[in-house]
Design goal:
Residues 290-328 are annotated as: Disordered. The protein has helices spanning 3-12, 52-60, 115-119, 145-149, 174-178, 184-188, 199-212, 254-264, 266-348; strands at residues 38-43, 89-93, 102-106, 125-127, 133-135, 156-157, 167-168, 194-198, 232-235. The chain has 349 residues and is mainly alpha-helical. The structure holds iron/sulfur cluster (3 copies). The site of one iron/sulfur cluster has 13 residues, from helix 3.
């Protein structure tokens, strides 16, 4: 079953418009998390908004050229979100009472227990023990429920791709990590605003920085506990909400959060994944039934042909037998008649 057909089934069932709110989502699977995995620490006090990370990301991921070049800083005049063509973006925040603007790089947080993975019933998203949350487009049915589920509004969809659109988000450069390389954005950052390492070390490093310079940093390591923790961490000199970060997420992982929501809205939420899975199964079953019907039709045609052939053969055989019997009878009669004629001749002599 392809994506188009799956979405068609959802639409036909009137479900695309009836998605539950993000607070009441996800399929309820829980993830154990991988505390030994890697992550990245972003320090907004070191970032100067040069956008080199955006450019490096664009290049290593072979994304389309942006509408405006990476050295065009007028893009910073507006807040941007990640898109299918820009899986990381740097935004500028002018904070009242602060002379210098604050820059924040946005991308997937690679949550320890990702809501996107919880919501994905075909398991296209996986939290890997190494840290990255990966996405497998080959199993994705394009329901885009991950986009609804993500509390950070990160996954984007390739709406422009007519044939095989994918969900796009930062991979933490998982292919590069597998080759022993750094994430491209980390490698290029001229200010070392990005540090790659083991998550537990990064948490320690982050707290070292904020404790040693309490006037420079807000006493908060964003991502240490939010939504059960994230592999991409952040320290900043201002309150997180002033650089566009959500502070209403709590510390409950997506899976447990869903369990709570299940209790609150049992009929909608608990039925949703069942319904999705059911629709998917119905589609699959329909495909399978169509295939079975086609096979049965072929078998039936073959059976009819065979029966017909056997009937024709049998008629032909019966006719041949009859003709043969008549021929034998004729020959016997002829022989008897000849014999009678000979005897009559002998008697006449
Ligand atoms: S490359 Fe570094 S300094 Fe430049 S915008 Fe990105 S994170 Fe900030
Ligand atoms: S930030 Fe969003 S897309 Fe990234 S892992 Fe977390 S829930 Fe998934
Ligand atoms: S880790 Fe890789 S994919 Fe993610 S923002 Fe950095 S360069 Fe882009």
């Amino acid at each position: 079953m392809n994506r188009r057909r799956f979405m068609g089934l959802l639409s036909a069932a009137g479900l695309t418009a009836a998605l539950p709110a993000p607070s009441a989502l996800a399929a309820g699977r829980q993830f154990s998390g991988h505390p030994d995995g890697s992550g990245v620490l972003f320090d907004s006090e070191r970032c100067m908004g040069c956008r080199k990370c955006e450019q490096a990301c664009n290049e290593v991921n072979q994304l389309p050229a942006p509408d405006r070049p990476f050295d065009d800083f007028t893009v910073l005049e507006h807040q941007r979100r990640t898109t299918a063509k820009a899986i990381t973006v740097v935004n500028r925040y002018d904070v009242p009472g602060r002379e210098q603007p604050v820059f924040r790089k946005a991308q997937c947080f690679h949550c320890m227990e990702p809501a996107c993975a919880s919501a994905c019933f075909v398991r296209a998203f996986q939290k890997t023990p190494q840290g990255p949350v990966t996405y497998d487009p080959s199993v994705c049915v394009g329901c885009r429920y991950c986009m609804v589920a993500c509390p950070f509004n990160i996954p984007a969809y390739e709406y422009d791709e007519a044939f095989s659109p994918k969900v796009m988000k930062c991979t933490m450069c998982a292919p590069r990590l597998a080759e022993g390389k750094l994430p491209a954005c980390v490698e290029i950052c001229p200010k070392e605003a990005l540090v790659f390492g083991k998550r537990t070390d990064l948490v320690r490093m982050a707290w070292d920085r904020v404790r040693k310079a309490p006037r420079r940093y807000a006493q908060h390591v964003y991502g240490e506990h939010e939504m059960g923790g994230t592999s991409w961490l952040l320290v900043t000199g201002v309150k997180p909400e002033l650089v566009g970060l959500r502070t209403d997420l709590g510390t409950t992982p997506a899976g447990e959060y869903t369990a709570g929501a299940l209790g609150a809205v049992p009929m909608v939420v608990s039925l949703w994944p069942v319904l999705l899975t059911g629709l998917y199964a119905v589609g699959k079953r329909k495909d399978s039934e169509e295939r079975k019907e086609r096979e049965a039709a072929v078998r039936e045609a073959a059976r009819r042909e065979k029966n017909e052939a056997e009937r024709t053969l049998s008629e032909f055989k019966a006719k041949a037998d009859k003709e043969k019997a008549e021929a034998v009878e004729r020959e016997v009669r002829k022989a008897l008649s000849e014999e009678a004629r000979k005897r009559a001749q002998e008697v006449g002599k």
